[in-house]
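Sample intake sheet
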Amino acid sequence: MGQKGFFGFFCLALALETISILATGSLHATESESTAFISAESGIAVSLRRAEAEQLIDHAITQELARLASVSQDSETIKAGVNRRIIQSLGELGPWKNGICKNSQWQGSDQNKDSIETGGTHQKPGTAELEATGIDGQGLAKISRALIVKHGNMAIVQYSVTGGSSGRLFPCAEITRAGHSATFEIPAGYSATTEVLLP
C-alpha cells in the first residue's frame, strides 16, 4: 500500500501543478472553463486525500504493530490492538462513509490480467462494493490476523488483512467532495511486519 500511495501522490501532485500553471495562464476564463477547472480541482483534491489516507493508515498500522509487538507476544492481543488503531485512524481522517467492502470482481484463478495480485486473490481496481457500513473491531477481526514467529531471541510479527474466508473482504472508506469520490482501501493481502527482541 505504501508504494502505491507514494506513486499515486506523486502523479496527483504533478497533475495539480499542471492545472495550476494552466489556470494562471488564463485569468480571463469563461464561466464554463472556471466550472471545469473547479471540478478538476475537486477531483484532484479527493485523489490527494485518498493518497494521504493510504500513507497515514500504513504508518499508523506499522507504528502500532511495532509498539504492541514490543510489549506482547499474544497474536490476538496484537491483532485487536492494530484493528483498534485502524478504526481510530479512520475516524481521525474525516467523516467518511466507511465499512467493510467486498470485491465484486474477485477471480479465483489467473484469468484477469488487469487485476492486482493480493494474497492469493485477484482484486481488480475500482471494483469494491460496500458490504457493511461502519467498521468495528468484530468486523475487522474476521478479516485480519496477526502471526508471531519466534527464532532464538527474536520474534517476527506480522499483521495482515486476509479478506475473510472468501478472500474478498477488506476495510474501505469512500472519500467525497463536490461530486467526486474515491475509495480508500486496505486491500486483502495487505501486510505489515516488524521484528522485535525477546526478553
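Comment: The chain is about 45% helix and 30% strand. The two ends are 32 Å apart (CA to CA).
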